[in-house]
User: Fold this.
Amino acid sequence: MSQESAPPESMSAGLSINAGWGIPLQVFYCAHCHSAHLAPTDVTLTTCPACLQDGLSAQPERLRREPPELVVPFAVSEESTAGFLTEWARGVRFRPDDLAPELLLRRIRRYYLPLWLVDGDVEATWQAEMGYDYQAASFREQYVGGQWVSQEVTETRVRWESRVGRLKRHYDNVAVPALEDHDRWMSRLGGYDYRARKEYSARAMAGSVVRIPDHAPDAAWPDAEGAFDRAAALECQAAGEAHHIRNWSMRAGYSNLNWTQMLAPAFVTYYREGEKVYPIWINGQSGHVSGTKRMSQRKASVTSLIVGAVAILLFFVGALIALVGAVLVAPLAIGAVLIGVSLLLGLIAPIPAMWVWFRNRSGDGQ
Amino acid sequence: MLARQTYADWTPPPGFVPASSRVTGIEVYAPAPPEEAQPEASTFRCPQCNGIVSYSADVQQLVCPHCGYTQEVGARVVGLAADRFEFTLEALDQSEKGWGTERKSIQCEACNAVFSAGGGELSTTCPFCGSNRVATRAAGHDFIRPGYLVPFTVDAERCRTAVTEWLGKGWMHPPTLRQVNAIGHFTGIYLPFWVFDARIEAQWKALVGHERQERRYRNGKWETETVIDWRWENGRVHLPIANMLIHGTDKTSTVLLERLYPYNLNQLTVYDAGYLAGWQAQAYEMQLKPAWELGKQRMREQAKSACYRDVSSSHVRNFSMTADFSDERWRYVLLPTYLATYEFENKVYHVMVNGQTAVVAGQKPIAWLRVWLVITLALAPGLLGGLIGLVTSLFGVGVFVLPVAFVLFVAGLVVAVYIFNRARAAGDI
Assistant:
């Protein structure tokens, strides 16, 4: 495969960010996760939206100064995320006090993730196996009560046929990851329907933070090539009027490549449990929520202590009654029962604390 | 620029032809479809003497009877690797149609049989009823072209020997039958057959009885009696069925045709018009669907028998089963058969010979006088013994003779019924 025109230089000097994006912006850099963010100057940004660590510093950053071409708009409002968060946090036992929807909502921040959009001309030769559905009859015979009953079952089967050809097409806005950890973000957020994208306007940036790409076009080119490949495969399948395609391969040359950006919406919030901060991510388009569901170790330990205390109390009461029972039979039996119950509670008491400790340690509850 | 040159210089691989594309800028090439068999109107003339050549079952080549020129037909023997088709309308539509050579469809006015004949045979003796009153009609175009055939390997002379030998066999038939010389002409004809394959997964359920011996004290003594314990059982049988033949003509006797089986389908050869040169061939009259219905009925009965064999006892009640068919496939083939008729005592009889194995099946007159004589002989000892027993019983000896006579009579009756049924079945073919 060849790429006739190399991806453009990722940094375009000369153009002011503010002029291009239509809103005064400031660049922040996180020393912990090495991510860079753009935020309107009226947004106070102290915590990194990517790693939720403090210590963001405003500093100049080399970046493309032209604004994004397209934006996938927020389809979920900040207020309506409360419902998604409540649903997500439901069923968390020993829920940390900080994992309350109203607190999460107070910390929520609109966040845009970048993707590259690549336009280009493709000339290629290709080959594939194309599958065509067809109907075939199969049969089922039943013998009941001395009679045969026939049943014809129509099955859809696939006939695979070889196809070859060549392709000369222009593709617009092929979406390509612009972050090194794009896949991780997408698995957290559940993916986007890019068909809803709209042209960028400065209004979209109000109160939002934008992640600056850390995957330069040079590095993203293999992904772009794969995206072109997939787009071409779909088009060739449509050209051949096939229902399925497999064993696809393409030898392509690319020209007139143009790289722009697209932004995908998300919300970021967090809660604290102990000394640590746990992030929660919400897809700004679908409302899909993900994050670590921690249980409160403190609450679990208190529960264990209370049960343990009750056990000890019952033990002493039981022992006292048993001493009295040295004279009378009935109190002796009551005392024995109480001691038995106390021993049982004593065994149960550490379970909440241990269970939460193991679950939190194993990271279960995601 | 390399890729652009590749694009510009690219040519489709051999055997690929342009196919329609629904997207501008995308060219699609597909494998060229198999060449449509155009009627070639080949007349199989000898390149040496321009005489008419025909396929010889003896040398299994095209032979010119005038100058002795021979030519291989050259089609591949594919055997059971011959293509099989699924039960799709699309597959039926895609099947090539026509015969690929100039042949005439001939309809017999007497029995309405439709058969295909070589170019020279505008009228001929009907191989089914022996009638000479035949008329031609236009060849039909609604026939699936046969993909494969088993060529003739038995020539007319060997056929005649086999039939003469067959006529002379059997005491039930008139002894003069072996002198019959009325079979003047054996018509070699390729008959249409559907070949079906399928896999059957059968599940059965039944009340199965298991015998056990039980001793009981009854009327002051111990008795042993057999008791059957009934319990529900079920099972599963996998039954692959391959190469089930269903003939595609309804103008021949199914009983006779099935007596010609088996055909060795390992000799299936790719259809080539050369094999039909000088022979007749009949197109199918029974369409694929009714033929498959028939095949399916036989398959499910086989599955039922297999399920019964799977039952661990001979006592079965409330038997039910389901047979799930899968991988159902069909082939349409031509198989070689000789048809002939002969006259005996002013009556016409049909004979068929397997053109591959020389197995003979046919109708033979029954010498009923002989049959009744044998039946009488079978019954005679019993009847005679009974008579003697009755007479001697007057002197007190008959009490020993009568039981023996009764046994002989019953045995004779069984033999007589068997012989009568065999003779009637042979006569009913």
Observations:
- The radius of gyration of chain A is 31 Å.
- DSSP finds eight helices and twelve strands in chain A.
- Residues 1-14 of chain A have pLDDT under 50 and may be disordered.
